[in-house]
Amino acid sequence: MLRMANYDEATELDDLEQQDAEPPIEQSADEEDTDTEPSDGPVDSEDAPTSAQVDLGLLEAMLLSTHHPLTAGRLGEVLGIHATKAVRGAIKALNQQYEEAGRSFRIEQVAGGYQILTLPAFGEQLKKLHQKEADAKLTKAALETLAIVAYKQPVLRADVEAVRGCACGETIRSLMEKHLVKIAGRAEEPGRPILYGTTKRFLELFGLNSIKDLPQPEALLQPRQ
């Protein structure tokens, strides 16, 4: 049975920030800027490693051994390669091998990193396979609330409740406990109410690289052919 929440938003902010705040993760120089290659560094020298010199077996093993996306910088760090361009080239080579072999998966860019995912063509069958597990994790109310937060973020709880037509405080708290929703700040209006948004974990769970990759309303309204 769900516990009914009875607290004001000021207290909610203090409680939730303590429960859901995650410690900052120190990033290496490669992780902070994986897409920019220094013009005067070893990346552009003749001795810089190429994608052909990357151990594809090790790279594949690293991606298979984690449930979270790994940045090109992190992969290069373990591979002993400072040129993220070579890592991205090796990922492209692996995907080409997968395609030529007719494999059911490929390496995709998710939440700023890389992860091995199954192809969309198998989505319906896999959805049936994992439906019970998914239902146990997120209720219909939670999915509806999460969708509203995702599309309208940063959004007030009052706005979420206006769309759903019911109280959403407990549902939002549950989503925060699952690290799918976070406190995104406070609104510039009387009382400074809390604003909510989605997390990096949300992107990982739904296979998105950024919020911009969410299906747009225009596409959702188009009839299926």
- In the CATH scheme, the class of the largest domain would be Mainly Alpha
CATH topology of the largest domain: Arc Repressor Mutant, subunit A
List segments where confidence is low: pLDDT < 50 over at least 5 consecutive residues.
1-47
In terms of quaternary structure, what is this? single chain
- What is the number of domains? 2
Which range best describes the helical content: under 10%, 10-25%, 25-40%, 40-55%, 55-70% or over 70%?
A: 40-55%
Characterize the main sheet: 3 strands, antiparallel
Per CATH, which architecture of the largest domain? Orthogonal Bundle
Q: How many extended strands?
A: 5
What's the CATH H-level homologous superfamily of the largest domain? Answer: Winged helix-like DNA-binding domain superfamily/Winged helix DNA-binding domain
Question: Roughly how many Å is the radius of gyration?
Answer: 21 Å
The mean pLDDT is: 77
Note the gap between the termini. Answer: 42 Å
Write a concise keyword list for the protein shown above:
single chain, 225 residues, mainly alpha, Arc Repressor Mutant, subunit A, 2 domains, three-stranded antiparallel sheet, two-stranded antiparallel sheet, 5 strands, 11% strand, elongated, disordered N terminus
Describe the structure.
The chain folds into two domains: 9-24 and 138-221, Orthogonal Bundle (Arc Repressor Mutant, subunit A), CATH 1.10.10; 33-118, Winged helix-like DNA-binding domain superfamily/Winged helix DNA-binding domain (Arc Repressor Mutant, subunit A, Orthogonal Bundle). It has a three-stranded antiparallel beta sheet. Strands 1-2 form a two-stranded antiparallel ribbon. Mean pLDDT is 77; it is low at 1-47. It is elongated. It has helices spanning 9-20, 29-32, 56-64, 72-79, 84-101, 123-137, 140-152, 157-164, 169-177, 200-205, 217-221, and strands at residues 105-110, 113-118, 155-156, 181-186, 194-198. The protein has 225 residues and is mainly α. 20% of the residues are buried.
